Amino acid sequence: MTIATHRGMPYAADMAARPKAFILTAAGINCDRELVEAFELAGANAVSVHLTTLLQDPDMIDEFDLVGLPGGFSYGDAVAAGRILATMLSGPIIDRLRAAIDRGVPMIAPCNGFQIAVQAGLLPGPWGQTPARTEAALLENDGARFVDRWVRVAYPQSRCVWTQGLRAEGATAVLPIAHGEGRFHAPDETMQELEQNGRIAVRYAADDDPNGSRGRVAGICDHTGLVLGLMPHPERYVRWTQHPSWTRLDAQQGETPGLQMFRAAVAHVQAAQVSAT
């Protein structure tokens, strides 16, 4: 388990009381360490677990209070982005992830994690439909090019626990992206359900949609509000110095929008723990 040592973090003696975050990693994943740091900055203990270890003991997920599916290029994004890893999660692992959501565990899935969550059926949700059907997809970007830059975003009112109370304005209302298959698409029925039930958690700005997503969707949550999938990388925006023009920002007060997301999820877990005692 990673123990944070930078200034402002609690000493090891205080770490036991912190919520525990599980971050999955596998071949091609390259953002698990960023997720570990984001969770720890937000007040959780975080551990990165390789898929091979999880396959041997899927029940270990039951020990954690938060879950992260990181970005990257899992298994080279062969066949389709996220599909191989999503297939490898089927069976006991996906059952334990669904059980975690049922017991109130917040889960974040940025970029490739979003693609994995959609391919695995965790999003949009709810699962268990008969017959099974594909409700959404993350398709090749308009223009068929990989896009790696910062984009302007908005946080509409939603049921997502990760974005509750999140307000970002002006130059701070941005997030970094890096993807080639991020164009969100869903049929009319699904789009209507997402809109009407407050499940669109992040939108691209009207004049800054980098991939042609339907409804300018950058991120959605599941029906519980616990699972957030988004193409941008909030874990890469947890310090003001990561902002592309941080030296010219008029104000760098409080926490960045990226860190606020993780802080909200940790606070949600802590509040639930207090209510349960």
Task: Describe it.
- This protein has helices at residues 32-41, 51-56, 83-88, 92-102, 112-120, 188-196, 257-276, and strands spanning 20-25, 45-50, 66-68, 107-110, 137-139, 147-154, 174-179, 183-185, 200-204, 217-221, 227-230.
- The chain is globular and about 45 Å long.
- A nine-stranded mixed sheet has the order 2-1-3-4-11-10-9-6-7, sandwiched between helices.
- The protein contains seven helices and eleven strands.
- The protein has a single domain, classed as Class I glutamine amidotransferase (GATase) domain (Rossmann fold).
- It starts with 19 loop residues before the first strand and ends with a helix.
- With 277 residues, it is an alpha/beta fold.
- Helices cover 26% and strands 19% of the residues.
Strand line-up of the largest beta sheet: 2-1-3-4-11-10-9-6-7
Highest-level CATH class = Alpha Beta
Fraction of residues in helices? 25-40%
* Class by alpha and beta content: alpha/beta
Under the CATH scheme, which architecture would be assigned? Answer: 3-Layer(aba) Sandwich
Note the overall shape: globular
Structural Rg: 18 Å
Number of helices: 7
State the CATH superfamily name: Class I glutamine amidotransferase (GATase) domain
Which assembly state applies to the chains in this document?
single chain
* Number of discrete domains: 1
Q: Report low-confidence residues grouped into runs of 5 or more.
A: 1-9
Distance between the termini: 26 Å
Total strand count, please? 11
Give a quick account of the main beta sheet: strands, pairing sense, barrel closure: 9 strands, mixed
On the 0-100 scale, what is the average pLDDT? 91
CATH topology name, in short, is Rossmann fold
What percentage of the residues does DSSP assign to strands (E)?
15-25%
Order of helices and strands: EHEHEHHEHEEEEHEEEH
